[in-house]
Amino acid sequence: MNLSDTKAKLSFSNGSPDINLPVYKGSIGPDVLDIRKLYGQTGVFTYDPGFMSTAACESTITYIDGDKGELLYRGYPIEQLAEKCDYLDTCYLLLRGELPNATQRADFHKLVLQHTMVHEQMQFFLRGFRRDAHPMAVLTGLAGAMSAFYHDSIDIHNAQHREIAATRLIAKMPTLVAMAHKYGKGEPYMYPQNHLSYAGNFLHMMFGTPCEPYKVNPVLEKAMDRFFILHADHEQNASTSTVRLCGSSGTNPFAAIAAGVACLWGPAHGGANEAALNMLEDIQAMGGVAKVGEFVAKVKEKNSTVRLMGFGHRVYKNYDPRAKLMQKTCNEVLAELGLEKDPLFALAKALEKIALEDDYFVQRKLYPNVDFYSGIVQRAIGIPVKLFTGIFALARTVGWIAQLNEMIADPDYKIGRPRQLYVGPVRRNVP
Ligand code: CMC
To answer: Whose CA is nearest to atom 9 of ligand 1?
Structure first.
């Protein structure tokens, strides 16, 4: 780590001696204060629930400038990756640090696309779930179950195992998501087709049936691929931090990813895409665009528990760059499907316009995030609302595994173990 020119000194009012805290600088972004020796030297902990000011690790993978609204994967802007690369190029970049050359690209595509089939026994495991189970419940189970089906690659301290597990996860998550979808519908599972692209194969497994050939629509294929790129990683968000913390105990990668899936499910995180679409449908049912003002007023009420889903972000205090790309993708998909007049899209745009001009949202720097338009794209493609977060999970799997492997490869890594400010009863005796 590189020391910053800034010096930090911590003083106490109780007569304890001052201590100097090292300050490190990253390649971009805020400096960090190293407090690792704080407790040993002073006997106090820091207190930061919600990690409002705490960097939990050092990373070379993803950088967000929340004020500018900038997102970089390994230094490359998300806009350029979305334009010039496909999802598997992006996976290679996140996992290995550089974009692939032509040979590496061909090899990596082949490696992933030839490992898309899952163990045949998986379908019997799936059969234990209720058909109306939420796909995220199913997916949490399926991701965890991979450690039982692929137990020859679960040693997190073995670099080869980590690489095999990463490939298996990226290759097989789309198959598992599509199987969860087909199971819920009571339709036969579609085996993957290795000649198709990653996104094309996913559409085939989702919407194909054994009764007739399925032709992949290139506009929808591109939209799906872009969706995957935009969701591939997002530095130390809640689910990624969960994967790191879970993996820090030395548990296997599939178990750590299952923990990430479970965390992503929540509506404040990945579940926001489902919640945002449900919100739009509710407003539509109330009367559509004419009711936007009334809904926004409800959101703004003091002590309101209603939030404008798909709006706001812990890090972005500007337009989420992924939301812009998602809005563009939304235009392309709706035009291709002849749905330009989709009332939900019109409603989303009206809602966005009002919110962006409203003092409540302006003062709090609340802008649309990636989830605001992603639901409209997915719904237009034919994906059921309950599956939205599952598709986010499949796209984020590469980010989770890249971050987990980065942590494990760091010789200084330790099991994560937060401390607390205890405010419960002091020692007392049972009467
Ligand atoms: N609608 C209305 N008010 C909001 C919203 C919203 N979507 N988001 C934040 N606020 C208000 C909040 O009430 C608070 O106001 P006040 O200062 O008067 O108490 C202020 O803005 C700060 O909010 P916060 O909850 O303290 O901020 P946070 O950084 O803890 O939360 C967030 C970030 C994403 C959880 C939150 O903005 C939110 O709940 N948004 C809606 C859910 C959503 O779209 N989540 C997806 C995030 S992007 C994809 C992903 O991470 O998976």
So the answer is: 312
Q: Which of 78, 274, 278, 314 to mutate to test the pocket of ligand 1 (most atoms within 8 A of CB)?
A: 314
- Structure token pair of residue 199: 């996104």
- pLDDT digits over 156-209, tens only? 889 999 999 999 999 999 999 999 999 999 999 999 999 999 999 999 999 999
* pTM score: 0.94
Report CA(156)–ligand 1 centroid distance (Å).
Answer: 35
Cα 278 to Cα 160: distance, rounded to the nearest angstrom: 43
Tokens of residue 120, six digits: 């045949």
**366 Cβ closer than 6 Å to some ligand 1 atom:** yes
List, in order, residues 6 or more apart from 424 with CB less than 8 Å away: none
Q: What are the φ and ψ backbone dihedral angles of 186, each rounded to 5 degrees?
A: 75, 25
What would the pLDDT profile of 50-99 be if each residue is shown by its tens digit?
999 999 999 999 999 999 999 999 999 999 999 999 999 999 999 999 99
Q: Per the structure block, which two tokens stand in for 369?
A: 């995030």
Structure token pair of residue 206: 């989702």
Mean pLDDT of 100-111: 98
Residues 34, 23: Cα–Cα separation, whole Å: 6
